[in-house]
Design a protein that fits this description.
The structure is a homodimer.
Chain A lengths: L3 H9 L5 E5 L3 E7 L7 E8 L4 E3 L4 E20 L9 E7 L3 H4 L16 E5 L5 E4 L4 E10 L8 E12 L14 H17 L14 E2 H12 L5 H13 L1 E2 L2 E2 L2 E3 L5 E2 L5 H18 L3 H22 L16 H21 L5 H15 L2 E2 L4 E2 L8 H10 L4 H13 L9 H13 L3 H17 L35 H7 L2 H4 L3
Antiparallel strand pairs in A: 1-10, 2-3, 2-5, 4-10, 5-8, 5-9, 5-10, 6-7, 6-9, 11-14, 12-13, 14-15, 16-17
Helix pairs in contact in A: 1-5, 3-13, 4-5, 4-6, 4-14, 5-6, 6-7, 6-8, 7-8, 8-9, 8-10, 10-11, 10-12, 12-13
Chain lengths: 504, 504
């Protein structure tokens, strides 16, 4: 359902994008390499100088030197003889080498193969200047001349990506980190955020390209300490307010014009609407937007609260097959109720219902706490990292108990571990809430450090150091290698006071 | 080489195109049918009502009811569920069924396969409105959904061709023909001309899409009695004047912006520049353009004259393997010299050289005339229709001799017969010049009548009633089914006074 007053405000906050031209740096080829990430390595062949000569059947692979999000532009012309028929060029784009080495007809993922980044363009007359209409996210591009007119070589005379973002990379607030390793983590996280800031905060510029509220919340947190693109944050909050499902905030909005939402919800994601308002209030000091949207925030708590009562919840929490989410969702509920309470207090609203809900939910959550194990255990007798993290974040236990919970889960043998950088953000927050800053920083360095070591120049959607081919879609080549929900090291390096924490 | 004064004039005569919206009429499928043209028949399945539901793997073939030249527009939307990944649609266009029944990977023609009319379009977000950038010439289009997201059916809600032409079909001068059979020939010829009138007089809107002077001359002749699109005729004449090769008029100009020519010539085609000026003068009465371009016209005669002297000519004449063109080119030379002479006289230029060239060339041509056979025979002892037609048109013999030549060639057993509707135009002119109007009309009815009977709704590039799969490119599916040089029945039905001639 569309709530016009908010959808109009979302539209009013839309601004022109920044543009940056990036040209290919070198020719590369890919080699099998057991030591390389996903067993494939890009090998530099030569500097890429234009023009690029292409006869029928020719193929070149180019490295743009950095991750690009934008529109490929090129010009094609005749060489020594006028081309008698239209040359056909096939472009295949990849953020990572695997996207170029797995043939598209061998794709067997659970997501539609329309997300595979390739396109064929036929140019009837030369010379011609072409802009591919679809926006791609890539570092590598393979160009194949797939027509058969071998008598007529053509050349690509210009070739560049018109990269777009809602922010200029250079506009980020300065932040000094002397440790080059941490600096690299910081940089790829900030680059990730920059690449995902488009007409909305996209989850990933390669795939989905939607405004997910789980991602938005983390992007906004990170943006407040870096680009401070407050207009875009407001635009996205208004989009969620403007398109809801029976009042419930949707997990995502398709940013297209006109925007729209799907018909289902994630209960934790609906609740994060409260977090978005709370973070906005805390970071901007402005009360106008919280006043305006308070009722919707409250409504999310009411909707999800009623569902928790009957345990008819469908939260996201994390990608983890078989995960019993019943404890974690109560943790999320209390976590966001506390934020809602803070908003209500600031806005001088009656917070009686909220207080009562917190008490009720705390009692319910405490019922899952096993004193013996020092861990939260679900009714199905499942112990998961997710239950512990969200229980800690709910603040239902004392600080000491929380520290023990986080310690105990480390030594448990549970198979229900955190799978996404998104979930790891909340683990970091749990550590931070227990003042375990050094532990948090070490975890961050360990996990994101491995991402850097694997050659990523943006932070990926999914990363399992023990299984480089892990994919929630059963096809690692469709994974997004630049995904917003993994960009929070920028936020954490600010919060953790990295330089000093490291010396603790 | 570019001659700016003329290329600028060509540009100044460029005008906006007319637009007409054509929607698909019915769903069809193709059936093998020994009696159908090229053994394949389009069978109507149902009326085409929008929307068209397309699930992954689905394919529909649509008949637009008439030949279209233009840009396909469509909108795609979700159905009952929001599509999770981009649908990919493959479009395959065909003027004739064969283009849709021969798989593109089985193409083995001598022209580049970039001319095959197909394209894949991926739509990242729905709903979306798409215009295919490439202009297509087609009556049938197959739409296949080639992505694999079977859970998400989509529908095409709008679909139409924005047809373009430099003229509105309705603007043609009225011409009454009571015989429905002749009327059909007249109509498809006029439609052909209309489809080929674009930013220039194109040879064919499906393929090549160039301004060929051999075609232009016939198109202009036809246009003078129908659309009277004099601006476009002037534009095209100026283009040939504006882009020449060491002074010689090129066989074709690429109409793209900026226009350009290839580096080789057809001598007969260079000479037809004279015919274009002559026809213009005769039809428009205007002398300004002939005055302006007289020197270039004269130059063509001088260039080709010098080459004939040394027999280093490379004319087109017709597609006919092994054809000895030495006699025909002298015929063309004299034919155009006479036109040049008429222009010179009208412009009060010194025509001494022209007169002397005519005499010299006539003597040379007469040398090939065999009194015994009543036919022209080349030095290589070859008798061809082409030699006779052009010798007749040169006017080197008496009218009675010409009549005999045209009669004798009919009974000769030569394999060197006319292959293209283009060449047949000159045969009709030869008959007409001998006042054999009834014979001309019968020939026209016979040949173009068979084109009609085979189901063409435009006049094709090549048509051999005895070999429906004949192709100058070794692949009949790449033949153009709408080709300018076969549109002259409109001209001839005016010239031949069809209604009365038929009763002779």
């Amino acid at each position: 359902m569309k709530y016009t007053i908010f959808s109009e405000k979302a539209k009013a906050h839309k601004k022109p994008l920044h543009h940056k031209t990036v040209v290919p740096v070198s020719y590369v080829h890919f080699e099998e390499d057991k030591l390389a990430f996903q067993k494939v390595r890009a090998v530099k062949d030569a500097k890429c100088n234009l023009p690029i000569l292409l006869n029928a059947g020719d193929s070149v692979t180019l490295d743009f030197g950095e991750h690009c999000v934008g529109y490929l532009h090129y010009t094609v012309n005749h060489t020594y003889t006028i081309t008698d028929s239209p040359p056909r060029l096939k472009f295949t784009f990849g953020e990572m080498p695997l996207e170029l080495t797995v043939p598209s007809d061998e794709y067997h993922g659970t997501l539609g193969d329309g997300w595979l980044q390739n396109e064929v363009k036929t140019s009837v007359f030369l010379p011609c200047a072409v802009q591919l209409e679809r926006r791609y996210a890539f570092r590598y591009v393979r160009i194949e001349r797939i027509d058969n007119a071998t008598k007529f070589p053509v050349e690509i005379q210009q070739l560049y990506c018109d990269c777009v973002s809602s922010v200029s990379r250079e506009s980020a607030a300065e932040f000094a980190i002397s440790d080059p390793f941490l600096k690299r983590i910081y940089d790829i996280s900030l680059d990730t955020l920059c690449s995902c800031e488009q007409d909305v905060f996209e989850d990933g510029p390669k795939r989905d390209r939607r405004l997910w509220i789980g991602d938005l919340r983390l992007q906004a947190l990170t943006d407040y300490v870096s680009f401070k693109n407050i207009d875009l944050i407001k635009r996205c909050i208004y989009l969620f307010a403007g398109y809801r499902i029976d009042g419930a905030v949707a997990p995502y909005v398709f940013p297209d014009s006109p925007p729209y939402v799907d018909g289902w919800v994630f209960d934790d994601y609906s609740l994060f609407f409260i977090s978005c308002i709370y973070d906005y209030m805390e970071n901007c000091g402005d009360l106008e937007l919280p006043v305006e949207l308070y009722d919707i925030a409250l409504q999310q708590a009411q909707i999800v609260g009623a569902k928790i009562e009957t345990m008819k919840v469908t939260p996201f929490i994390d990608w983890c097959d078989g995960l019993d989410k019943s404890v974690a969702i109560i943790g999320v509920y209390i976590y966001t109720l506390r934020q809602l309470y803070a908003i209500a207090k600031k806005l001088q609203k009656d917070a009686t219902w909220i207080k009562a809900e917190i008490d009720k939910a705390e009692m319910a959550l405490r019922g899952f706490y096993s004193e013996k194990e020092g861990l939260f255990v679900t009714e199905s007798n499942q112990i998961s990292w997710h239950s512990q993290v969200w229980a800690v974040l709910s603040g239902v236990l004392t600080k000491d108990e929380n520290v023990k919970v986080l310690k105990n889960i480390e030594t448990s043998k549970t198979a229900f571990t955190m799978r996404t950088p998104y979930m790891m953000h909340y683990y970091l927050e749990a550590l931070y809430s227990c003042n375990l800053k050094k532990k948090a920083l070490d975890f961050l360095k360990g996990y994101w450090g491995k991402i850097v070591a694997c050659g990523f120049d943006r932070c990926p959607e999914i990363f399992n150091p023990d299984n480089q081919f892990e994919s929630p879609y059963n096809a690692p080549e469709i994974n997004s290698a630049c995904h917003a929900w993994s960009c929070t090291p920028v936020y954490w390096l600010h919060m953790l006071d990295a330089e000093n924490t490291d010396k603790e």
